[in-house]
Design the sequence.
């Protein structure tokens, strides 16, 4: 088959280039948000994320120190300092500056500008300035200086710091992160256990109605979650669980079971018959066969389902919204938090991007670490 | 109690409870009810083995029944009664009221658009990606990267694409890449893509296509690998070009898998909720059934219409359900 692409070098190139284009197209949106999460609010608002690796030319309005810092030296009143330092900014090379908003590029660094209220100012390229006047400077605030500076590319971890580790930030994600974790782990482990026993029974035990039960599992595999919402909410309220972790764990267990049983049964059926029959002959009970032979041999299928279920519960919004999150908001999960932020902080991309990546990060790690099992699970789980 | 501790206790209780249940129920069955000793040893072992499958199946099918089968019946019942009128049976009145709402028809129309486009586009892109990455040296890396959105939540994907569609005033610099390209290629005014009726549906669909393409690619790529080499070699010897080989040799042989991918993505589309909820919440004529239902349930608090719209989703799923069951039964024979 190699020669399909190999016979014509032009076609080989076309394949490489189209594949690369497709990959870039698929990566671009994620990369954009990822880069944005390392930029300050200012940077995000003033330039597209694709410009982040390059120095940006920015027009800044800075202010000199206030007149009360002036000192008198030889009949001259002088104010000195650094424009960037007054504004607590990083220094950046100034290309041009001005003292009026109508001519922001009137002077080169090192040139001296006449001030409208009298006196002069000289600004150096590094932001150092010196104001001189024969009379005292007046007024409460310093002189405005308009500079055009070339800001080098800069990335910050500040957004993550703020969203994860700042206890004062009510929009922080740390609590939602732990809530999500609390939902996810039991909701992944419990269905595996229950499903494994059922899958073994469906695969290796003889009893009437087996085919019918397998058909039922296949049917339930596609029943939309939406149908379960009201009846189960009613049920949970009537048995006193209400909204809370127990409810969401039970719900995820129930919804995950069809896929779990289906995946595990299909895998277990394929295990070599000899081993199981030999064990039976040697007097092993079904329980022993299950725990000592089936479970260790089924590890790949168990891992596949565990990953699918983990991704599904971690990324879920609907089930959490219906069965977990109450009016107090104490039990909010990350997906819900992000939706709320989308509503209240629609344009604040430094917050949104960081929140999204805090939530996306864990599944991405799992994805890249255990892709093999995920692929296997998907291959086995799509109904043939 | 801290939820994390509660979580650990639940894991221990849940796992311990499950293991305990299976272990002790087996023990009781074998030692107490039908002991494998005494005069009836043969009969007892047989009887124990008749009951054992149900011990193994018990918890799973209890949960399945309670969490999936019963709700189907209950939702149907709820869609036929009126909660405000003391749960009186009202026949199809909820459905009638729902059909009278323009928002329902908008949701239905959009769902059909989604059904028409997303499975087709995801399968087509998946097939393209699978074929392109099949024989190149960095194919596995490429596959990984195209597959990656599968791990991202619909909400996360919503945020990612909202930045792509972001709009800034005409005099400011555009930070959304779509508008930046639009202006670069001669567009005059930046567009607010998600508020343009009808077309905004497509901008939402792109998000799901972006996620599902990886899934389609993985499944189809495995299928392409499974095509017998000799059929392709024969075609090459007969002088078939690369495109002929792809469309006339490969695609027909993996048609079954293409169908599976198509139906699986269709199922995802029918339940699509998070993307619309996070990005537009059904405004600007982007409503879909699942979000319409959520709206009715938890904002309008109308269980009747909520259940009725859930039944509409169930109705749309049913053909696939039947097809799957028929196929599964055929395989079992």
Sequence:
């Amino acid at each position: 088959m190699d020669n399909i692409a190999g016979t014509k070098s032009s076609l080989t190139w076309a394949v490489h280039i189209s594949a690369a284009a497709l990959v870039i197209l698929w990566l671009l949106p994620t990369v954009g948000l990822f880069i944005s999460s390392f930029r300050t609010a200012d940077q995000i608002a003033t330039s597209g994320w694709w410009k982040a690796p390059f120095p940006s030319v920015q027009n800044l309005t800075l202010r000199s120190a206030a007149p009360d810092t002036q000192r008198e030296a030889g009949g001259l009143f002088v104010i000195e300092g650094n424009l960037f330092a007054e504004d607590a900014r990083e220094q950046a090379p100034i290309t041009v500056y001005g003292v009026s908003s109508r001519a922001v590029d009137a002077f080169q660094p090192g040139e001296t500008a006449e001030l409208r209220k009298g006196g002069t100012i000289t600004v150096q390229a590094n932001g150092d300035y010196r104001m001189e006047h024969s009379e005292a400077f007046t007024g409460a605030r310093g002189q405005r200086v308009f500079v055009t500076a070339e800001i080098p590319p800069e990335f910050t971890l500040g957004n993550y710091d703020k969203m994860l580790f700042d206890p004062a930030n009510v929009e922080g994600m740390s609590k939602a992160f732990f809530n999500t974790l609390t939902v996810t782990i039991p909701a992944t482990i419990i269905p595996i256990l229950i499903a494994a026993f059922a899958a073994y029974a469906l695969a290796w035990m003889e009893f009437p109605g087996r085919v019918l039960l397998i058909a039922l599992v296949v049917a339930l595999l596609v029943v939309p979650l939406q149908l379960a919402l009201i009846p189960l909410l009613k049920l949970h309220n009537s048995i006193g669980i209400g909204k809370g972790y127990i409810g969401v764990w039970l719900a995820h267990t129930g919804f995950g079971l069809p896929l779990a049983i289906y995946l595990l049964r299909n895998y277990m059926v394929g295990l070599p018959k000899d081993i199981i029959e030999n064990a039976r002959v040697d007097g092993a009970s079904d329980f022993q066969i299950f725990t000592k032979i089936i479970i260790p041999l089924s590890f790949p299928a168990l891992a596949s389902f565990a990953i699918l279920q983990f991704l599904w519960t971690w990324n879920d919004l609907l089930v959490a919204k219906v069965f977990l999150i109450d009016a107090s908001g104490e039990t909010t999960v990350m997906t819900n938090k992000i939706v709320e932020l989308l509503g209240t902080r629609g344009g604040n991309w430094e917050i949104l991007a960081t929140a999204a990546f805090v939530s996306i990060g864990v599944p991405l790690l799992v994805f890249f670490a255990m892709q093999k099992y995920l692929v296997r699970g998907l291959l086995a789980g799509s109904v043939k | 109690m801290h939820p994390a501790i509660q979580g650990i206790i639940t894991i221990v209780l849940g796992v311990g409870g499950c293991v305990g249940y299976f272990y002790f129920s087996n023990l009781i069955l074998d030692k107490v009810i039908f002991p494998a000793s005494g005069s009836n040893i043969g009969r007892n072992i047989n009887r124990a083995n008749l009951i054992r499958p149900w011990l193994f199946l018990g918890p799973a099918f209890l949960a399945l029944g309670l969490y999936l089968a019963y709700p189907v019946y209950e939702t149907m019942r709820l869609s036929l009664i009126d909660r405000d009128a003391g749960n009186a049976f009202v026949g199809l009145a909820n459905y009638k009221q729902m059909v009278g709402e323009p928002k329902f028809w908008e949701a239905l129309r959009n769902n059909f658009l989604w059904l028409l486009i997303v499975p087709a586009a995801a399968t087509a892109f998946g097939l393209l990606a699978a074929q392109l990455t099949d024989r190149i040296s960095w194919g596995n890396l490429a596959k990984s990267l195209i597959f990656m959105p599968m791990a991202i939540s619909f909400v996360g994907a919503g945020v990612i694409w909202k930045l792509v569609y972001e709009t800034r005033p005409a005099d400011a610099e555009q930070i959304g890449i779509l508008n930046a390209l639009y202006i670069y290629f001669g567009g005059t005014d930046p567009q607010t893509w998600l508020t343009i009726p009808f077309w905004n549906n497509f901008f939402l669909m792109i998000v799901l296509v972006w996620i599902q393409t990886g899934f389609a690619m993985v499944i189809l790529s495995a299928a392409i690998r499974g095509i017998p080499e000799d059929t392709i070699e024969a075609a090459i010897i007969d002088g078939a070009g690369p495109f002929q080989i792809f469309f006339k040799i490969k695609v027909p042989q993996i048609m079954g898998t293409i169908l599976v991918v198509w139906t699986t993505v269709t199922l995802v589309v029918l339940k699509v909720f998070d993307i619309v909820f996070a990005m537009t919440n059904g405004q600007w004529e982007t409503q879909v059934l699942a979000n319409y239902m959520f709206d009715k349930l938890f904002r309008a608090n109308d269980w009747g219409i909520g259940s009725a719209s859930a039944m509409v989703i169930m109705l749309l799923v049913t053909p696939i359900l039947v097809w799957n069951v028929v196929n599964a039964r055929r395989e079992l024979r």
Chain B touches chain A through 120 residues (CB under 8 Å). Chain B has two domains: 3-79, 96-332. The two ends of chain B are 52 Å apart (CA to CA). The domain at 96-332 of chain B is CATH 1.10.3720.10 (MetI-like fold).
